[in-house]
Amino acid sequence: MKIFIDSADLDEIRDVAAMGVVDGVTTNPSLVAKTGKPLKEVIVSICEIVEGPISAEVIATDYDGIVKEGRALAKLHENIVVKVPLIPEGLKAVRTLASDGIQTNVTLCFNATQALLAAKAGATYISPFVGRIDDIGGDGMDLIEQIVDIYENYDLETEVLTASIRHPLHVVQAAMLGAHVATIPHKVIHQVLKHPLTDSGLERFLADAKKIPS
Ligand code: E4P
After folding, report:
1. Where are the domains of the chain?
2. What's the gap in Å between 124 CA and the centre of ligand 1?
3. CATH classification of 2-189, choosing from 3.30.365.10, 2.130.10.10, 3.40.50.300, 3.20.20.70?
4. d(Cα 212, Cα 77) in Å, to the nearest integer?
5. Mutual orientation of helices 10-18 and 186-193 as an angle, nearest 10°?
6. Does position 214 have pLDDT exceeding 90, yes or no?
7. How high does pLDDT run on average in the chain?
8. Is 83 a catalytic residue?
9. How confident is the model at residue 109 (pLDDT cuts 50, 70, 90)?
10. Sign of the alpha-carbon dihedral angle for 57, 66, 136, 30
11. How many other CB atoms are there within 10 angstroms of residue 197's CB atom?
12. Residue 155 has what pLDDT?
């Protein structure tokens, strides 16, 4: 499973990129707004840090606007993936962008039929938001399982990008279900790495190391 970081914070992205564990980056307007910087500046900086797919989201909601913004974003760097909302105008734009050879990430997916249609439109990635489904009492991972099964049944090439991850268990479940990608917030990447037995074991080794004669 590929690991993306879900962030627009350059320090966070540099931190995980230095570990060599990050295959790509996803952003959204909320994450970019937190940086206080213009979208293009943030996206170009991210492309200089991570060599892999970098999702940048359009703001337009009409076909012409999405295609125009998507083409402009794609010109910023060869690794840009244009993130498009899962609405009818969005899917029309995905079809056009795909025929231009531009990669797309269809976002805000909350059911399997939405995912099926996004794949038929030519999406490169589909982003089901598991955490937001859990937040309202559903089971986001059921949706991942359904989409992975449907895509496999029909040999659809769209990659399942598990999004809205809230905790390490989501990462394990996404991998076990065969999701192609998990996009993980910086905080959760560090939670994944943390284990009390690793910390106590290291503490004991370091204490014992002081007893080794030089
Ligand atoms: C996906 O690409 C989105 O940026 C993100 O995962 C949304 O997560 P949230 O529900 O925590 O905002």
Report:
1. 2-189
2. 17
3. 3.20.20.70
4. 53
5. 30
6. no
7. 98
8. yes
9. very high
10. positive
11. 7
12. 97
